[in-house]
TrEMBL record:
<keyword id="KW-0677">Repeat</keyword>
<keyword id="KW-0413">Isomerase</keyword>
<dbReference type="Pfam" id="PF13848">
    <property type="entry name" value="Thioredoxin_6"/>
</dbReference>
<dbReference type="InterPro" id="IPR036249">
    <property type="entry name" value="Thioredoxin-like_sf"/>
</dbReference>
<keyword id="KW-0732">Signal</keyword>
<keyword id="KW-0676">Redox-active center</keyword>
<feature type="domain" description="Thioredoxin">
    <location>
        <begin position="286"/>
        <end position="413"/>
    </location>
</feature>
<comment type="similarity">
    <text>Belongs to the protein disulfide isomerase family.</text>
</comment>
<dbReference type="GO" id="GO:0034976">
    <property type="term" value="P:response to endoplasmic reticulum stress"/>
</dbReference>
<dbReference type="GO" id="GO:0005788">
    <property type="term" value="C:endoplasmic reticulum lumen"/>
</dbReference>
<dbReference type="GO" id="GO:0006457">
    <property type="term" value="P:protein folding"/>
</dbReference>
<keyword id="KW-0325">Glycoprotein</keyword>
<keyword id="KW-0256">Endoplasmic reticulum</keyword>
<dbReference type="Pfam" id="PF00085">
    <property type="entry name" value="Thioredoxin"/>
</dbReference>
<dbReference type="InterPro" id="IPR013766">
    <property type="entry name" value="Thioredoxin_domain"/>
</dbReference>
<keyword id="KW-1015">Disulfide bond</keyword>
<dbReference type="GO" id="GO:0003756">
    <property type="term" value="F:protein disulfide isomerase activity"/>
</dbReference>
Amino acid sequence: MPRFAEAAMDLKGMDGDRVVAVAKLDAERHTKAAAQLGVRGFPSLLLFVNGSSISYSGGFSREEIVMWTRKKTGYPVIRLTSHAMAEEFRSKHDIYLLGLFEDFKGPDYDEFLKAATTDNEIQFVEASDIDVAEVLFPNIKPQKQFLGLAKNEPERFIKFEETFEEAKILHFIQYNKFPLVTTLTELNSARVYSTPIKLQVYVFAENDDLKSLLDPIREVARKYKEKIMFVHVDPTEDNLAKPFLTLYGLEPEKPLVTAFDNRVGSKHLLESDLTPNNLEEFCSGLLGGTLSPYYKSEPIPETKEVVQKVVGKTFDALVLNSPDNIFLEVYTPWCIDCEATSKQVAKLAKHFKGMENLIFARIDASVNEHPKLQIDNYPTLLFYPSGDKSNPVKVSKKSSLKDLAKFIKTKLKPGDEKNASTEKDEL
């Protein structure tokens, strides 16, 4: 709301007598009005042009609200005609796309205007005087037209080298608008998550640690520009960091690096120290698709129980490569029915205690992963026959104890019961 109020002051009289009126509606108090507008979430911003509403799709800073409104009311580009105007514009904008055109007409200029109208995030600015344009983008060689992106970061000026087409201009912006290393914030998170760059490297480091790491990381990021997006996340920012760290099952005690390959939906972890060489090798593997995917796992347990605990790191050895029949319970701590199912599995394990070639096990899927264990419903009971671990049998979790015992017996080979305990718990 404070940023919306600030934007209102700018919108009150943007250019001469062109005014955008700004208003607010308490939807809890005026429910009928909110329903007529189709408002379902908050905050909702709507722009009305000639009676028709447009849902707001821009950022949430003062500048972004003003820029989006300008574009949607028919003024997508700011024209600069003097050094003073250029200096004032530069002082207010950290990022912009500059177009230099001799007379503001022609097919190339039309494509520039189309891109300016379509894009919702970057302020487009134009000039016809090269001296004025160079205030915003230095050292433009004498030419009839020019296009370049300027950002407030070390990689400040980027020249557009393609033909002037709307799609190519928008592509250029999408792949160049972020800094070499973007710090994730509440304000930019939506834009970061929606980036079209499919390969992303996330550096988790507290701000003090980042100071010594930033320049080396930027050097690596520069080599993978437009191919890999580099994002810094402060792990002390719980709302931003926790979803990622939970996904990896990690609690960083020192800076760490993770990555996503959204081409195939895999995640990765730099398991060596964060050095420029290790980071570059990691990024090269990410780009080439040769990195091993990362699957989270609890530490390997030191003791065995009646129902063996399986973790991500031991799933191959204890389940897939085991010569025994495995009855596996897949659960999560937050699952409503899991506790009752766990008690059933524990009773079954005691009942079949001592039986050769039969192991009861359980795995917490909230903190352990394996590529051969793709479960999305908990609890899940699986029986892995000793002769074919590639085709586990899904067992109904609604079965009674006696039915589960009968099922297990039908899956055992003759002679498997020869070492079973003579004292069995009643089911």
